[in-house]
Every structure is written in structure tokens, then in C-alpha cells.
């Protein structure tokens, strides 16, 4: 099930969307059975791009922030999903510790932390916020402009457990993508549930592994639905050992880009799409907020100036880029107030609980919207005026145009489950 | 977790309510652990009475109707709860059959059926409606005034399975309280999930057993919370072998009523309550919509006229009343537009998903509101204007005054789990 949110889609429903709407019971059953075999991450947000002819995830964030941007109506859904997650993970849970980003102190990020705290409090836990930033040495209350406040406490490591003064959590929720690597203070916490696990951290995770898993998921889903999985999947390739600074590996990268563009061109021809294909280059490792570069022609890489190259050479957090993910570019057809927009779907456990549009008025439909100037617009819940129409069959009258977003986002969530299973360093323990 | 609905409560928060609000994490954890041991019924509605000094359930309906009266915002919550229920009961489910009441064809009842169908459809099932009324011989589409329509099909029994033409459900949802007894067509369906089970039917279930289980639940909960369980429990007693028509057993009933009134009087004295105690007499078996009679003095029973007695002698469905449940009356302090109101809390699986007020402008605070002239007012979700107040701690600012209703309603749900376990005719099979 996907809540009925109002999307910016007003055009006719195309074949892909109609196929998903018609197959809703089969799709939901398919997910139910998948979740029996694969445990979803505690939470995730999937960034989607809808080109009209295809709809694909372009990244899956396992440390989602922006909970504060969601419509208020989603709160009960998030709480209910959090309850379901806790029941599975640790029904005896009393205390939950949230670990936020180390240095981010913007009011919007802290409002996100407050919202997460609120969700898990209402799910019936004592929730406190502990920083693993070594600079945080004493408890601090930070007031936010909206009237909320957050109390940030220094964490205390005692043997195999992490906690706060007089607070021993059974579950630790990471809202810190660990962009500079895995801190020792989080290692070997075998007595507590650490969610998501350390191998979901930004320096450990590889986007290429995620998209390989996503391709597998998309193929299986496509087979069930009877569609070409390309319609929901961005073709991806990995180019290892690229040294942007020294200019090494660039030729290899060019030929890989050429090869991928050729594949996309064939697909465009097959479907009669008259657009110019492009790819996006991203660092395979490192934070999702690291710059992504659109490339329409491999030759562009030769002409790259020193500035552009040095921008690609390190991640946002200063780590050197070695492997480059080449990903089919998916343009976005959606507009909110005439600005280019891409939907971001929020999930808690296996449930879709809300969505926002990331909007950037100064970017074009082929560009990355994760850039200064972007803003977020919550997707509202559809209300009765949009709901059943007289004379229509119940449930079919006003189609839920958010549904397909909820489906593709959950495919990305499922791919993350596959990914975390495949990369679990302790996997053999459970075999 | 209980969604934040707007109640009619505007007075100060009393001690009981404050205790529940403060203990929220402990209460939620207590429920989580209880639900590990006891499976909740698929759905239920709990009718509560709030006297100010005490809050108690007065009946727990295991075949709840009125889903159409709930606020529209609750739909996603109900769908998410239905998904969680299906995942536990039968994750492979494709088809669900709803069995409605046999003879009720009012638009409001059918709108309730449509809403249930919608909830389970959105949870990812193919849902059809099959009547077990032998009079329904062919498929019929009934149009409702609101533009919805419902297709009613005759059920087909084939060996050990029940279904429709070309429709073989794995789960059957009863929205029929089986007020005239268990029909043979529903017996021995060992291959399908029948929810709620047959021993929840109105002629099998005994209110006295439910309230005995409720007392056990209330005692355990009261101990955990450190409160006298009387504050959430209506004292009840059973008087067997009453023959209203012949006037037999009435004296015994009088002395039982006297004894119960004395108990209530002692409690009122203990708490300094200056109200006149009363009891409610109900048939121990039979539909919940069967008349309930308030009695302030056992002498009233002598003076009962023939008409009143013959009304008590048979249930709504014409079955003779034998055992009488004597229950402490709980007056209701709530008012909606100056009319006496009682909250009805809807639950799906273990989740509170919404509520309505049952309102009766012509009844007093001590009377049964289940009578002609009653209407339903949905409880709306609280929106941001009621939510966090500047300067207040998050989550504590605007107290959720629906919370205590959600707690007591879930205690009644839990008592139903105990009850159905204790009365399960096939229990030994699973031991």
C-alpha cells in the first residue's frame, strides 16, 4: 500500500503507470513475499526521476534526513511503521538513541532530528540524541526557530555498549552517514542493535553494488509484471582506478561512457524516444551529496578543465575518488511551480510513509537537483474532493498517481536489503 | 501509538489521564510484549464511557461496522494496519472474501462494507463481497447514494472451502456477527482463515467472559501503571437462569444488583464521588445492539411492566435471554454540540486507527446511546495549529487527549484476545 499523495502529474496515465495501477494486488503480494525473505533497512529515502517513458531511482539514501519536510499527516503512518519495525527488531525495547550528523547544526537538519525523535517517542520509546562528535563534551540544548528544541548529549562507550549518562539504549538509530569513515566508538557493539548497520556507511557502501542489486530486483519485478525492466532501471557501469587529478584512467572512462551511451541509444530507438541520451558520473563511494556530473558525449571528458576535474577528484568529505559509477541519465518531466522537481519517497521499515519534491528553479531537467538553491515541497495527502467519483468503481476512480513512485521506491528499498545482505561482514555468523 | 485525534475533552487533564500520558513509553512497551503472547482479533471497535473519574469500555464489538464514519485521514493508517495483519496471518494471500450482515441493506451499512473493501484492496488484495444469506441467489450490484456501489455475490461452498464463482479466497473476513447462530456453511472451513473465528459469533460469545478477561487485563495493566484497576474497569456480575417472561430468577437478580450497587457505592465513597451509582443489565449472549437497561435501585425490577420485561426477555434477533450481565453503569461526561456522546475507538490488528463519537441528543448521560436517533461524528486528526507550541518540549506540548481512549480500547482488544483463546474449541489442537 502506498498512501494517496498528490503528485505534480496531471498528464494522461501512460502504459507503465497503468500497468502498475492495474496490477496493484499482485505487486503488493510480491512485496509481501520478498519481505518475508529479506529484512528492509530501518528507513530509507529513494530519489526518483520520472522521464515519462521511464521511472527510475537515482539514489537510495539509507540515512535519510528531511523528515521535517514531510506533510504532517504522515506522522501517524510513520509512527505506526516504526512500531511495526520495533516489534520485529526488539519488542522489549525501552530506550532508543539517535546519533545525528557530527557537524551539521542547521535548523533544518536539527528539525529533522526532532521529527525522528518524535516518531520513535510516539511509537513508545524513550528517545535521546547522542553525538559521536568528539567535540561534543557536554549536554547542550539547542533551540530551533520553530519553537522546538533538541538536547544533544555526548555519548559514553562502556565496554561493548554505547549510551548516554544514565541512559542505556537497546537500539541505536544512525542518522549519520559516517561520511569520513567508521568511527571506532561504533565498532563491536554486539549487544545493541545498530540501525542501519555500519556497512551501510558512506565510505563502505558502493553505489555500484546497490545498483547491481537493484538491477536484479528490477529484473525479477519486471518479469512478474511483464515489462522490460529498463523502464524502471538506470543502466549502470563501474569504471575502477580513475585518477582525476593525475588524468589517469580517463580514456578507459571515456570508452565506458561511450559504450553505455550506445546502450541507451539502442533503447531509445527501440521505444522511439527522440531525446539525447546522457550519463551521470558519480563517485562510487562516499556521500550521496557528492557532486554528480552529467555527460552527453565522452569527448566532454577530454575538455574538462582543472577546476571541474578537481571537483570530481574528491568526495564532499575530502576522500579521494577512485572508482566512478557511470549511470544512465534520467531526465525529470515533473515541475512544481515551473521549477524542475524530483520526487523523494520516504520509507520506514517496509512501508511508504510520505514524500517530498526536491525542487530547483535554476536547474534543467537533466541536471542534479542536489545543489545549493534546492528546496523541498511536501506531497500532501489527497483528500475527499480528489477521492471517489460518482458512478466509478470504488478504489479505481481517482487513481493514486503516487502509487508508482511508492512501488519503484520500495524496489530500491528491497535492493538495499539485498545489498546489505551481500555486503554483511558478519554474514557467515548467521548462516 | 495512538493517532492524535481531536476529542471533545477541553477540561483540565485529571490524574488518570496524566498518568497515562506520562507513562506512554512504558504503556506502549507493555502492549508490545502482550501482543507477542496474544494474537489480536483482526479488527474491533471498543465503546467507551468517560465519567471523568473513571474511563471504561462498555462493549467490544468484534464485527465492527461504521468504518464509513471514520475520518478520511484514517484510511492510510487502516490500510497499513491491514497490511501488517495480512503479513502475519497469510503473507501469500491474494483473495479476500468479505461476508456482510445477511439482511442489513441500509446505505450506511453498505457504505461500511465498501470502506472495508477499499481498505483491504489498498492493502494489496483482490476483495469481493459474498453473502451467506440463502435468499441471495444471484449477483447484484447495489448503487449507494454517495456514488459508490457494492457487488453482492452468493457464496459457494465446495468441500472444505467457501468462495464465489471463479473466486477462491484464502482469507474470509466476517462482518456478520452471526446473530442467529453459526450457519453450517461456515463450519469446518479448515483450509481457509476465517476472521474473526466462529466462536466470536454473537450467540456463542458471552459478554461475561469478555469482562472477566477484561478484569484480568485491567488488573495487570493497573499494577504496571500503579493505579486502582477500578478506574478503568466496570464491575460486572453474571446472573444465570433468569426468565423474564415467567418472572423466574428476578429475586436472585435483585439481590445481585443490590450487591453490585453496594460495591460501586463503596468505591464512590473511597474516591469521594457524589453521584448516584447505577447498573446496566444486558443479555449475556446475543447481539450488542440488544437493549440494555439502566437500573438505579433493585426495587425497579419488581415494578417492571409486562412491556419492559418482554423487551428484556428476547434478544434483538428473537433468541430467549437466559443469563443477565449486571454491569456497573459508567456515565458519560462528553458532549458534542450539547448532545451526550461516547467515544468508539476503531482498531485493526494491534493498531488504533481512528475513532468516532456516538451522539444521541435525546439521551441522558446514564443511558445507552445505541438507540434510534443516534448518529456518528468522526474524530478528526489534530493538525498543526493544535500541535507543538513554541517553547514547549517536543511531543509534550499539546497533549494527545485521544491517547487514553486508545489505551483503554486496546485493553479491551487484548481482553478479546484472552477471551478468544480461552473459548477456542480447537485450542487443544495447537497445544
Automatic annotation (TrEMBL), chains A, B:
Top-rank lineage group of the source organism: Bacteria
Molecular functions (GO terms): ligase activity
Keywords for the protein's UniProt record, in alphabetical order: Ligase
Protein name (Swiss-Prot/TrEMBL): Glutamate--cysteine ligase
Organism, scientific name: Extensimonas vulgaris
Amino acid at each position: 500500500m502506498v498512501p494517496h499523495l498528490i503528485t505534480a502529474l496531471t498528464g494522461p496515465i501512460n502504459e507503465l503507470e497503468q500497468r502498475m495501477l492495474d496490477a496493484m494486488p499482485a505487486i503488493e503480494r510480491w512485496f509481501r513475499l520478498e519481505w518475508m525473505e529479506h529484512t528492509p533497512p530501518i528507513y530509507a529515502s529513494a530519489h526518483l526521476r520520472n522521464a515519462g517513458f521511464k521511472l527510475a531511482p537515482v539514489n537510495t539514501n539509507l540515512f535519510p534526513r528531511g523528515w521535517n519536510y514531510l506533510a504532517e499527516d504522515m506522522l501517524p503512518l510513520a509512527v505506526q511503521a516504526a512500531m511495526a519495525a520495533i516489534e520485529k527488531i526488539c519488542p522489549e525495547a525501552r530506550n532508543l538513541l539517535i546519533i545525528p550528523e557530527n557537524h551539521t547544526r542547521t535548523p533544518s537538519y536539527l528539525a529533522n532530528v526532532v521529527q525522528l525523535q518524535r516518531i520513535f517517542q510516539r511509537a513508545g520509546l524513550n528517545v535521546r540524541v547522542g553525538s559521536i562528535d568528539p567535540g561534543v563534551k557536554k549536554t547542550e540544548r539547542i533551540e530551533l526557530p520553530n519553537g522546538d528544541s533538541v538536547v544533544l548529549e555526548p555519548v559514553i562507550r562502556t565496554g561493548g555498549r554505547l549510551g548516554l549518562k544514565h541512559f542505556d539504549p537497546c537500539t541505536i538509530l544512525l542518522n549519520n552517514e559516517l561520511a569520513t569513515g567508521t568511527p571506532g566508538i561504533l565498532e563491536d557493539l554486539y549487544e545493541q542493535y545498530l540501525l542501519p548497520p555500519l556497512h551501510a556507511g558512506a565510505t563502505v557502501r558502493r553505489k555500484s553494488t546497490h545498483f547491481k542489486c537493484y538491477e536484479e530486483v528490477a529484473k525479477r519485478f519486471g518479469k512478474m509484471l511483464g515489462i522490460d525492466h529498463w523502464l524502471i532501471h538506470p543502466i549502470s557501469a563501474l569504471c575502477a582506478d580513475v585518477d582525476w587529478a593525475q588524468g589517469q584512467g580517463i580514456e578507459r572512462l571515456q570508452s565506458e561512457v561511450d559504450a553505455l551511451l550506445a546502450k541507451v541509444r539502442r533503447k531509445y530507438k527501440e521505444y522511439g524516444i527522440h531525446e539525447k541520451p546522457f550519463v551521470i558520473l558519480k563517485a562510487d563511494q562516499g556521500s550521496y551529496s557528492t557532486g554528480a556530473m552529467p555527460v552527453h558525449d565522452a569527448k566532454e571528458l577530454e575538455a574538462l578543465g582543472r577546476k571541474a576535474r578537481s571537483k570530481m577528484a574528491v568526495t564532499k568529505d575530502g576522500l579521494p575518488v577512485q572508482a566512478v559509477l557511470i549511470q544512465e541519465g534520467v531526465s525529470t518531466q515533473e515541475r512544481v511551480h515551473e521549477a524542475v522537481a524530483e520526487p523523494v519517497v520516504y520509507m520506514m521499515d517496509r512501508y511508504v510513509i510520505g514524500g517530498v519534491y526536491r525542487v530547483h528553479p535554476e536547474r534543467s531537467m537533466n541536471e542534479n537537483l542536489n545543489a545549493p538553491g534546492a528546496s523541498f515541497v511536501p506531497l500532501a495527502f489527497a483528500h475527499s474532493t480528489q477521492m471517489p467519483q460518482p458512478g466509478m468503481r470504488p478504489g479505481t476512480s481517482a487513481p493514486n498517481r503516487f502509487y508508482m513512485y511508492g512501488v519503484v521506491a520500495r524496489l530500491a528499498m528491497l535492493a538495499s536489503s539485498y545489498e546489505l545482505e551481500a555486503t554483511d561482514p558478519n554474514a557467515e555468523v548467521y548462516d
